[in-house]
Amino acid sequence: MKLATRWCSSSQAALSLLLIVLISHYFQDSNEQIVETLALGSILQPNQTLVSRYDAFALKFFSHGPDRNYLGISFSRNPNKTRIWVANRNHPARDGAHLRFSQDGNLIISNPDQTSVWMSGTSGRNISSMLLQETGNLILTHNSGSPIWQSFDYPTDTWMPGMKFYLGSSIIASKSLADPAEGRFSFRMLQTTAEVSVWNATTEYWTSGVWNGHIWSGIPDMNYNALFDFFFRNDSGRPYFAWFDRKTPMALSHFVLESDGTFYIRTWDTINGWWYVIWKAPHDPCNVEHLCGQNGICNSDSTPFCSCPQGFKPFDPTGWSEGDWSMGCVTKLSWDCNAKEFSFLNNTYYDQGSGVGSSVRSYIGHDQAWCEASCIRDCTCLGFSFDGGPSTCSLHYGPLLNGKTSPDINHNFFLRVNYTEQSPNNQLPLSKGRGRKTKTRWIFYLAGCASVLLVTVALLLWGIRPRKRFADRQSSEYVSGILKKFSYKELKKASGNFSEKLGTGGFGSVYKGSLQDHTIIAVKKIHNLKQGDKDFRTEIRTIGIIQHVNLVRLRGFCAEDMHRLLVYEYMPNGSLNSLLFTKPGEQPHIVLDWETRFAIALGTARGIVYLHEECSSCIIHCDIKPENILLDANFCPKVSDFGVAKLMGREFSRVITIMRGTRGYLAPEWLSSLPITAKADVYSYGMTLLEIISGRRNLDVSNSILEKCYFPLWACKKARLGDFSSLVDIKLCGNFNVEQLKIAVLVAIWCIQDEEINRPSMARVLQILEGTLQVTDPPVPKTLSYLEAERNNSELELFKLSVEEELPT
What does the pLDDT read at residue 388? Predict the structure, then answer.
């Protein structure tokens, strides 16, 4: 990292700090009250500020509009009061909200009507006091003086000096400058190589490289670092990074992931009174994946970075004005397949390589006129580029992503548009002469007249037809086994413009919605589906007749233009994943007891058996894992996404490891290019069953037990020794059925055998779990031993040992 070398003397710095503090207090709102401590039972009002001992940080409410109030910690020594932490970032409080430090030791943000918005979850833990430290860390301490809860364990978008950044945690950028809610960009640490990276949802667009004990391999400038010390430690089986500022006595530097997806290191310049950017990644903001959304164009030399091309407008004007460009741009008019005009975008290109649902088709040996005509003939073609050198024509199919413009880009793009207001400077029609334009106008005119005539006739016919037919058809769409066809507009309205996301997977994102009859639904927007409308409907109707108590029921679908959506019944208890696993430091809101876990294992097995053997045609799910096991109000398990696997076909098999990050559940045949059979689901079920039993990820290395051993192999070794109880989730506190535990562990190990011939069928698995068949002791899979050896010989393991010996405590 290139670091600043221009620093003032310590006396100058101290004087500047003193002046800033005096000025800030002088211009302080006269209604604001300064609070130095908050005792048990006290309340922090909206006009009060809790300050640290030397006034470096402040805890107070801030507002981004009516009923959009948040509690946050900010620097108090800079004029713009830069925030480093927000408690209720995803749940704004109403006007007049306050913070209460309850008598039982819980921090609670409440609305004026006393409804809770956020709480620390520390009640009943013998909390005695609260302290805002000079590091910017808010801590709650035990009667003995030891910290019980601290804000550093729940970072928002900022990494402060001394803050431990644990494996598995993440720093998430704000949605926009005016909305502190979690946005689409996140900063994470990877498990195996101790590298840090920045992501847009499931797509990584910057990485630091591997940590070698001193620097990250992808940041060689760290060799010249004179300002910061970095440490990698393993604290009781929880790997983490931490850093410290060498130059400044107070915490005046910080790392922050901004809402535009750029990761900054900034320090406070006490002489000039501004934040000095020491380093950022990526260096070009236009390299942030999907920064400007669909069809948007990024220009790193402009402010703001994102703009819409001619003929397009922001999909979300309010969000766009606040710096949230995620929704991208849409055409000013509805799309017309007869559109034959193109907008010439100089020094511009669209990179479709990582775009969901987007593609580029290239042809060599044709001229520009052929390229234009080819795009016009295809309604789904959104534009083209033409390279006159090798005569390469590239046709682009939407959505258009990662648009970028710069004088350094030696590339032009022709964007297909249909709009009324055209700019003479930006518009460059490729058609020759005015005759073709005039002919096109007449075609549009005649087509419009014909459309009006047809609509009039249709309305007349509809008006004289019996109304009962329509009523019968409408009601029949809800009969069991018959799906309703929804319009995109209808689902968009039902889901509140897809505002409440329930989850994201490789096949698409799921949103909560409500139909007109107040039925709660889950709407899945599918990506990467190349099937035509007719094929999609045929497959959906086939899947729609599949009904089983342990399969999520499909209520309907949408196949309109480029949109492919599925409508499912809503599962109030979410996914099994959300109840089994918690982030470091989090307390589970529900602990599944052994009886419920075993019932979930049984129900999941029954659902898979139905897919494999009992429905009209065998369906291989291809992605069995806790995220795809949903729980209804009674915790009855229902396998989801089984229909999507059938729709996607086998061509997605090589994408699944990248799209979904589920390597821990993939059978060895996936990685060996062998034919995939139903036994692949058996392997995934076995891995999932181990997680149901243990409450641990099978690829998790954050637990001390797993430091020396890959968990599935460790489970196999314990099973051979007869030590089954050590595999049970510690949250159960020893309450489990010993016989059921033994059967479940042995079944899981049989399921994850290397050769599919050695794995039982799901029907046999179900019989064993139900107690109608006996189970024998399984061998230890050789693949697990190989993974274990590979892991123990990795550079990361060698580095872990050296770190513990060399780094100071």
Answer: 64
Torsion angles phi and psi, residue 602, rounded to 5: -65, -50
Q: What angle do CA 79, 84, 90 make, to 5 degrees?
A: 120
- 485 and 543 fall within a common domain: yes
Identify whether residues 317 and 233 lie together within a single domain. no
Taking the C-alpha atoms of residue 316 and residue 325, their distance in angstroms, rounded to an integer, is 8
Q: Is residue 447 part of a domain?
A: no
| 702 in the same domain as 577 | yes
633 plus 782 within the same structural domain: yes
CATH code of the domain covering residue 332 = 3.50.4.10
* Whole-number percent of the chain with pLDDT over 90: 30
Widest CA span in the chain: 91
Query: What are the beta bridge partners of residue 274?
Result: 269
Distance CA 451, CA 12 (A): 77
Exposed/middle/buried for residue 777 (C-beta within 10 Å: 0-12, 13-18, 19+): exposed
Q: Which of 268, 283, 298 is a domain's end point?
A: 283
pLDDT-derived band at 759, boundaries 50, 70, 90? very high
How far is Cα 57 from Cα 136, in angstroms, rounded to an integer?
Answer: 6
Report if residue 147 sits inside a domain: no
Residue 177 located in a structural domain: yes
Nearest to 579 by CA among 590, 568, 569: 590
608-617 pLDDT, tens digit each: 998 888 765 6
- What DSSP string runs through 10-40? HHHHHHHHHHHHHHHHHTS-TT-EEES---T
Worst-scoring range by mean pLDDT, 63-67, 275-279, 498-502, 573-577? 275-279
Amino acid at 326: S
Q: Do 107 and 7 fall within a single domain?
A: no
Q: Given this model, what pLDDT does residue 425 score?
A: 33
Q: Domain ends where: 118, 142, 166? A: 142
Beta strands 48-51 and 33-35 are parallel
Same domain, 60 and 100: yes
Tokens linked to 636: 């009855």
273 and 127 in a single domain? The answer is no
Q: Is 623 a catalytic residue?
A: yes
DSSP state at residue 610: I
Share of the chain above pLDDT 70, in %: 72
Are residues 127 and 61 located together in one domain of the fold? Answer: yes
Cα–Cα distance, 37 to 559 (Å, whole number): 59
* CA 560 to mean position of chain CA atoms: 26
Active-site choice (179, 245, 623, 641): 623
pLDDT tens figures, 773-796 = 899 999 888 766 555 544 444 433
CATH number of domain containing 560: 3.30.200.20
- Token duo for residue 194: 């101790």
Residues 6+ apart with CB under 8 A from 168: 189, 191, 583, 584, 700, 702
pTM over 0.90: no
Identity at 727, one-letter amino acid code: L
Angle between helices 711-720 and 679-694 (to 10 degrees): 80
- The range of the structural domain enclosing residue 551 comes to 466-569
Kindly state whether residue 485 falls inside one of the protein's structural domains.
Answer: yes
Phi, psi for 609 (deg, rounded to 5): -60, -40
- How many structural domains compose the chain? 5
Compute the distance between CA of residue 718 and CA of residue 427 in angstroms, rounded to an integer. 71
